[in-house]
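Why does residue order matter? Because the sequence determines the fold. Keep that principle in mind as you read this record.
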Amino acid sequence: MVYTFKNHKKAELLKNHLFLGGTSPNGGTIDVANRYIEQNGKPWIGVMAEYHFVRDSKDNWYKELCKIRAGGITVVATYLFWIYHEEIEGEFDFTGDRDVRSFILDAQRAGLDVVIRIGPWAHGECRNGGFPDWLLDKPYPLRENNPQYLEKTRIWYEKIYEQVKGLFFKDGGNIVGIQLENELTDKAEHLLTLKRMAKEIGLDAPIYTVTGWNSKFGAKIPVDEVLPVFGAYPEAPWTAHTKPLPLSPHYVFSGIRNDSAIGEDLISEEKDDGWRLPYDLYPFATCELGGGMQVTHHRRPFIKPMDIYALSLVKLGSGNNLIGYYMYHGGINKIGKLSTLNESKATGYPNDYTILSYDFQSPISEYGETREHYRLLNMLHMFVNDFGDILAPMEKVSPVAKPTFDDLHSLRYAMRTDGTSGFVFVNHYQRLAKLDDIDDVVIQAGDVTFPKINVRGDVSFIMPFNMPLPDGTLECAAAQLLCKSGDTYFFAEIENISPSYKFADGKEFTPEAGFNSAFSHNGAQFVTLSAEQAKYARKLSDEVYVGDRCDLYMCGDKICSVQDGDFSYMKWNGSGFDAYCKKQDFKQASVVFEPTDEPFVPPYEEELHIGGKRGLTWKKITVDGDGGFIEIPYKCDAAQIYADGELIADEFYYGAAWRVPAKLLFGHECYLVMSEMRDDFYKEF
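Structure:
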């Protein structure tokens, strides 16, 4: 069957219509047009990852930021949770793991720009949404323009500025954006006040963002002053009930930016007063594409790698021109001087989250392990990093027959094009459902007809057409474009589809995917990695590497592997791959679990008895070293690990193996306590 598209319509390009943008001392520029962001005068698609510095150890920041950069990320976003820095009124703390300045400098050293999310209210599953308890006790309303609240907010902003002074883009630094507040849907005048206050204080960045979603019509924002950013999650664990949700619409190509399900636990439906967010004034930008999903006590989704990869690919094919993940790197909440710092029903919020764990099932775990969606997403990120200037100006074009999210039989596809060349996006994946295999698919993009393919299994991919080359044109490829090194183009084999390339001069190539697949034509080389090899391909310091089932990253000028022990990799030398092997000392710790009676009353026992008193099972944990990870054999409601009487790890069981670094346990007297499971939560295992 032939699959075609609607006619392409050139969209109007607006520039200099927003009070955004900036210049660095070296002449670099950042500007916001209505269709894309520009960097140094060129269209640009940033890839932004959320990683909360206060939810990790300062000793880990640089290494973890290097892993983030190796995943194709170009911008790191981070919250400043007010309660973490002023838990007691008047006592500010920006030291140790709360040292935001050191984090930003580590990000710069790792090659990352930064967006700081300064609140004052943040959410982020933090206690009180990040507000200190003492602020809630004040006798005046919060999150609006009253002088007393603004006075406290000004002090908070001033304290932030003291820490980050001199690190802004205008100073030659790497802070390129500031998010004001979060999920504030109907107070444009307050958001404008916050922006003006921030700039007066010196918190001055090229881009100011606000979250653009609300229940229905888009948040009310100061229209010319900020960039609204959006999100999309594979599940909604904040939903009050414990029943399965309808199939997600986020796996079908659509121009809809506003996901009204985000924040529905806190944002109520509002009456239609005629407000409509003027989407055409802004590029489609995201800050909360689900990099995973945090579990609540009553809803515990199990996130699969394709849940994340397919969602991001669909949004890119739908016109997303700033890719932002929440979360990309998991974290661990601190315990404050006065209380725990997690969101809970006890603090007046609708959900109970774990006290410590904020793993989020993210591409990089709370302990720095990489997951499969880290690898899959990197394929998109390499593509965007090397070809974003071409893709960003391209408009989304819908298919002639557009399937709905509950249609499990039709091909899901879209196109982005400038009218001549472009990219075809195909998504054959729906979370919690199986799509029918579709054979004999012939996609026709303008005057280009792709070869017949079979779309089978869980696959999502991008194919180029009419791509300019040094001495000709690649008419189309049945393979996914990854990155470029000089005049060598790297592609990935698409699962269940044989790679093929057709050029405008009529020449065709059908290489076998692998390290020896290179061929030359039209002044360029083409390398097609196998689907498995492509997951471990990395673009590091402008060089192309492929790990041997290991995730490579560059720390300083040293090639490292996320995985412990010896590792091997291939490196492109311009005409072929060279093999390398690196040795590193490693001894995996072993563990013994011994049943035991209750050794003490757990200090945070309430987490084990959410929803009512539950039976507890205790085990003593002994490890013989600090190398590697220990897998905790448990199937329960909630679990906690105590070391020398201190809570060091916790988890709500959701079906995945619980892995904890041996170094957390080694040399300590450790106990695991587990509460009995009941059928009182949504689960997918």
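The first strand starts at residue 2 and ends at 3.
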